[in-house]
Design goal:
With about 300 residues, this protein is of the alpha+beta class. It folds into two domains: about 130 residues, no CATH class; about 100 residues, Alpha-Beta Plaits. Strands 4-3-2-1-5 form a five-stranded antiparallel beta sheet.
């Protein structure tokens, strides 16, 4: 019996040491990868803007790297402490029969009450933060659209996630809610975006001229990435007018934002120059003609 106990303790101890060593290496490797990715990011804001800060990109990268280091340090301690506790419990498991059942029940009940009442929100957010940290669905520096808010992930702590919005406000979400959210990640794999701009023209417009203007404006934009020629489609035909799309590549979410505003502004100018009317113009004219006939 004693020999079996010694073998059990030796095997359990060896497994614990190997697990701690492997986990330490894995966490160090994951931390280095995340910090290297943050340092490689050339754009750390959802759109290009000036800033009251003298070096906004550098400051953002340094802040994100510091936050990653602090998060992994805390996460490393929490995970290692949890493994040590489980390891100790496994070591003392053969001796639990010598402890009165009443004492074990009281200790377990007291611990459950403390965790359930006092620490439940913190524990839930902490566990969710660890899950998010290990996953690739959301990382510091990613550009996202979440709850109709567009921004970059500025920080992922063990309890909450901070989204830096396009207007420099911060949107803070508890991590236990993050796991159940649907969102668009524009940079989960790469930063390229095939962006499209939707607009309408009246049936009186020459669709060939509209297509030529839209393709030229898209291809001449400073934010267009020339991986392939832009595309144009007449997407729908409603009674109010023709729905059109023009699409092209951009190198980043920030360039996609600026491409859309640039192309829209120049489309308006070119349509005014060529006398091309929008769908609302024709629809309004029909209504005015109908009202005049009624009068």
């Amino acid at each position: 019996m004693e020999s079996h106990l010694i073998v059990y303790l030796l095997i359990t101890g060896a497994i614990g040491v190997i697990l701690l060593w492997w986990l330490q290496r894995y966490l160090n490797k994951l931390e280095d990868q995340r910090i290297a990715r943050v340092e490689r990011l050339s754009q750390f804001h959802p759109i290009e803007t000036g800033s009251p800060s003298e070096h906004p990109q550098r400051d953002a990268r340094e802040s994100a790297a510091d936050s990653l280091t602090a998060r992994f340090s805390i996460m490393r301690r929490v995970i290692l402490l949890s493994i040590v506790i489980i390891w100790i419990l496994a070591l003392v498991f053969p001796f639990l029969g010598q402890i009165p059942t009443t004492v074990i029940s009281l200790l377990a009940g007291a611990l459950a009450v403390i965790v359930g009442i006092a620490a439940r929100p913190f524990v839930e957010n902490m566990i969710s933060g660890i899950v998010i940290s290990f996953s690739r669905q959301l990382r510091t520096g990613d550009t996202v659209l979440m709850d109709d808010r567009y921004g970059t992930v500025e920080d992922i702590s063990l309890t909450h996630t901070v989204i830096k919005l396009w207007d420099w406000r911060r949107y803070i979400i508890p991590n236990n809610q993050m796991l159940s959210k649907d969102f668009i990640n524009y940079s989960i794999t790469d930063s390229y975006i095939w962006e499209h701009i939707e607009f309408w023209v009246s049936y009186e417009a020459d669709i060939t001229t509209v297509k030529e203007i839209a393709l030229r404006i898209m291809s001449e934009s400073d934010y267009f990435a020339d991986y392939e020629a832009p595309r144009f489609w007449a997407m729908d035909m409603e009674k109010e007018g023709v729905q059109c799309w023009v699409a092209g590549w951009t190198n980043s979410p920030s360039d996609a934002w600026l491409l859309k505003t640039d192309v829209r502004s120049k489309l308006i100018q070119e349509f005014q120059k060529h006398g091309i009317k929008s769908h609302l113009y024709r629809y309004r004219g029909i209504n005015e003609d109908q009202s005049e006939s009624i009068d």
